TrEMBL record, chain A:
Residues 38-155 form the HPt domain. The keyword Acetylation applies. One of its GO terms (cellular component) is nucleus. Histidine-containing phosphotransfer domain (HPt) contains an active histidine that mediates the phosphotransfer. Its main location: cytoplasm. This is Histidine-containing phosphotransfer protein. It comes from the Eukaryota. Keywords: Acetylation, Cytokinin signaling pathway, Cytoplasm, Nucleus, Phosphoprotein, Two-component regulatory system. InterPro entries: AHP1-5/YPD1, HPT_dom_sf, Sig_transdc_His_kin_Hpt_dom. GO terms for molecular function: histidine phosphotransfer kinase activity; protein histidine kinase binding. GO terms for biological process: cytokinin-activated signaling pathway; phosphorelay signal transduction system. Gene3D superfamilies: HPT domain (1.20.120.160).
UniProtKB/TrEMBL annotation, chain B:
Functions as a response regulator involved in His-to-Asp phosphorelay signal transduction system. Phosphorylation of the Asp residue in the receiver domain activates the ability of the protein to promote the transcription of target genes. Type-A response regulators seem to act as negative regulators of the cytokinin signaling. SUPFAM superfamilies: CheY-like. One of its GO terms (biological process) is phosphorelay signal transduction system. Keywords: Cytokinin signaling pathway, Phosphoprotein, Transcription, Transcription regulation, Two-component regulatory system. Residues 18-145 form the Response regulatory domain. Belongs to the ARR family. Type-A subfamily. This is Response regulatory domain-containing protein. The modification 4-aspartylphosphate is found at D78. It comes from Flemingia macrophylla. Gene3D superfamilies: 3.40.50.2300. InterPro entries: ARR-like, CheY-like_superfamily, Sig_transdc_resp-reg_receiver.
Length: 155, 149
């Protein structure tokens, strides 16, 4: 696909992610940290988030299975997960995490359980959108690299 | 290069502060590391209080693993960590004769005034709300460099 179209696509995707509330300004902080030293910083951090949070989610899932539920433990695990969500700007996921913590505080197991389903949904939805977005941005970067290489070869 | 004096806070070079960043969260460690590097700092990270104390040479019988050549000019630590909290780490640093002058900054995702006051009373330089922004870190490193120069 032609680079202009790719750039338009990337811009559209990025704008939607913000407009639809999937991401907040923390994501922009990540983008601002991307530079020549770390040209893939955003994708790297997001990938790290998704791999690291697997165990955090697993911990919460396991804790939800204990009888009686240990709300302190649930809240602790959620606090860790929420911190990570916050650091990458995962707005909708973070919102559900806050809701989960509120249910922990009132020891509402049903609320925790339902909210956890919602967290998983938002988490997966965001992942799919970001993977697609990074595919496009990576393609743009690749095209730039190829162009530069061709220019250098011409010299 | 400045010669070591009786003070521990002479930097290797006046322009490169060495910061020890402590956080149990991997994402936050990566972030704070990048933020600090972007502010021209040398960064060492630790994932918990005990490891941080080890790196600072404050464990019993421990040597300063940085061998006196790369002293830490600033410690930035998360408050909520399993085992030793950032507050407890702060206390241990302030209680030591060797490291008590090191500025310690506490980070937290929660804005709890009693928590903030407790840390400031114990000698924390600053309390920063997470998630950290580039502007927070720039402010911090500017302050640090101004003190040192």
């Amino acid at each position: 696909m032609d680079k202009t179209k790719l750039k338009q696509q990337a811009l559209f995707m990025r704008t939607s992610l913000f407009d639809e509330g999937f991401l907040d300004e923390q994501f922009i902080q990540l983008e601002e940290l991307q530079d020549d030293v770390n040209p893939n910083f955003v994708e790297e951090i997001v990938t790290l988030f998704y791999t690291d949070s697997v165990r955090l989610i697993y911990n919460i899932e396991r804790a939800l299975m204990s009888n009686p539920p240990n709300f302190t433990k649930l809240d602790d695990y959620m606090h860790q997960f929420k911190g990570s969500c916050s650091s990458i700007g995962a707005k909708k996921v973070k919102k559900e995490c806050t809701r989960f913590s509120e249910y922990c505080a009132t020891e509402n197991f049903e609320g925790c359980f339902r909210t956890f389903q919602q967290i998983n949904l938002e988490y997966s939805t965001l992942k799919k959108k970001l993977v697609t977005y990074f595919q496009v941005t990576t393609l743009i970067l690749e095209k730039d690299k190829m162009k530069l290489r061709r220019l250098v070869e011409m010299l | 290069m400045a010669a070591p004096s009786s003070s521990n806070w002479v930097m290797e070079s006046p322009h490169v502060p060495h910061v020890l960043a402590v956080d149990d969260n991997l994402i936050d460690r990566k972030l704070v590391e990048k933020l600090l590097r972007n502010s021209s700092c040398k960064v060492t990270t630790a994932e918990n209080g005990p490891r941080a104390l080890e790196l600072l040479g404050l464990t019993s019988g421990g040597q300063n693993t940085m061998n006196g050549r790369s002293k830490v000019n600033l410690v930035i630590t998360d408050y909520c960590m399993p085992g030793m909290t950032g507050y407890e780490l702060l206390k241990k640093i302030k209680e030591s004769s060797v490291m008590k002058e090191v500025p310690v900054v506490i980070m937290s995702s929660e804005n709890i005034p009693t928590r903030i006051n407790k840390c400031l009373e114990e000698g924390a330089q600053m309390f920063i709300q997470k998630p950290l922004k580039q502007s927070d870190v720039k402010k911090l490193t500017c302050q640090l460099m101004n003190c040192e120069i």
